[in-house]
Design goal:
This protein has 348 residues and is of the alpha/beta class. The protein contains 13 helices and eleven strands. The chain has helices at 17-28, 46-62, 119-123, 152-162, 169-182, 193-203, 209-217, 222-233, 241-244, 254-259, 270-274, 306-312, 330-341; strands at residues 35-40, 66-70, 102-106, 126-131, 142-145, 236-238, 247-252, 282-290, 293-300, 316-318, 321-327. The strands form two sheets. The chain has a six-stranded mixed β-sheet. The chain has a five-stranded parallel β-sheet with strand order 2-1-3-4-5. The longest helix has 17 residues, at 46-62. 49% of the residues are buried. Bound molecules: guanosine-5'-monophosphate and manganese (II) ion.
Length: 348
């Protein structure tokens, strides 16, 4: 499903007091034997898993006994996250409650990000959406969508607080993984004083940021190191693209992964090695998911709204970090991106 550029609410508006009250009431109103299903987006990243598992652990402390967490697609959790507290909540999508009393979605801007689990939205007693994408389509019934939040975990912490669930080290570890992932280890523009205040609350539970960062950002199999080398060698720089702001792009095939015996998720870190290119505002990585299908990551340093590009091509995301599924050959997909870039230039 294609996401519209904006949902019904005014652009940039966060949850109202009424939204917070409705979300808290949906949890407080659960009966003792209620079944709650947590869902995060396909190919879950640190914010998707961290906000979902952190909130799930909080719900468990709150007293929810029948609780599952899941995401669409193959059930494997990427190796960097395989130590997170709360992994015992995870079930493969086929084992997820078919008709939960409450479904809660994390970090998904549109229904398409929920894959085959989208049917749970209709079958659930109520559907609560926690997210921070400006492109969120306002699917589901109760919305806690804050485009100003640096991560979905900011919204998750806000709801736990309103439910009176105190932070402990396990919850904090999950929320910290989410917060540090989506702020690029507190480097991106979204790193506001409120972000550091939240980080301080999380760290005060006694968690170890050095260990956490090393595990999720600075650990990679040797095969992935060599794979990155090959993929970076084929990167192209197009200084004239994006009205002269520049585009740098590369791609990785399933063959590349097989040759180095690597799982697909190792490619998630690749964009960080491409986007440092000084001569380009926009960076792009195409990751092959089937012969003519590519998961495309887009980043901008500030001159281009890449979420506009992604939305135009059927995806979504944030102004400076977005993505979509591209179909066809590498050249066809890059042609389509190039064509959208000039129209996505931010003025000023
Ligand atoms: P990444 O490049 O790290 O996969 O994603 C960057 C941002 O774009 C994330 O906020 C993610 O939610 C969004 N995004 C990535 N791929 C897609 C997609 O296929 N559809 C939509 N709607 N959003 C995407
Ligand atoms: Mn996020």
């Amino acid at each position: 499903m294609t996401a519209p550029a904006e949902g019904g609410a005014p652009a940039g508006a966060g949850p109202t007091d009424t939204d917070w009250a409705a979300a808290a009431a949906a949890v407080r109103g659960l009966s003792a034997d209620a079944r709650v299903l947590l869902i995060c987006h396909v190919n879950p990243d640190g914010d998707a898993l961290g906000s979902m598992l952190g909130f799930g652990l909080g719900l468990r402390r709150f007293g929810v006994r029948q609780l599952q967490a899941t995401f669409p697609g193959p059930p494997g959790v990427p190796e960097p996250f395989r130590w997170l507290p709360g992994l015992d909540l995870l079930v493969p999508q086929d084992d997820a409650y078919p008709d939960p009393d409450l479904v809660i979605c994390f970090d998904a801007a549109s229904e398409s990000r929920l894959g085959d689990l989208v049917d749970r939205l209709d079958k659930a007693g109520a559907a609560l959406v926690l997210d921070h994408h400006a492109s969120n389509t306002r699917f589901g019934g109760i919305h806690l969508v804050d485009p100003h939040a640096a991560a979905t975990s900011v919204v998750a912490e806000g709801l736990l607080d309103r439910l009176g669930v105190p932070l402990d080290a396990e919850i904090a570890t999950c929320l910290y993984v989410a917060l540090s992932t989506d702020t690029g280890s507190f480097r991106f523009e979204a790193t506001t004083p409120a972000v550091h205040e939240m980080a301080a609350r999380l760290l005060a539970t006694g968690i170890h940021p050095g260990d956490i960062s090393r595990r999720i950002f600075d650990t990679r199999p040797f095969g992935a190191v060599r794979l990155f080398g090959e993929v970076l060698v084929r990167a192209r720089l197009e200084p004239a693209a994006a009205a002269g702001r520049g585009l740098v792009w590369t791609y990785a095939t399933q063959e590349d992964l097989a040759r180095h015996d690597q799982p697909a998720y190792v490619l998630e870190a690749l964009i960080d090695s491409v986007r440092c290119t000084a001569e380009a505002d926009v960076s792009c990585v195409l990751k092959q998911v089937s012969p003519a299908e590519w998961a495309v990551s887009l980043r901008s340093k500030g001159a281009v709204d890449v979420s506009a590009v992604a939305v135009a091509l059927g995806g979504g995301g944030h102004r400076f970090a977005a993505g979509f599924t591209g179909r066809g050959s590498v050249d066809e997909v890059v042609d389509r991106i190039r064509a959208e870039l000039d129209g996505a230039l931010l003025t000023g």
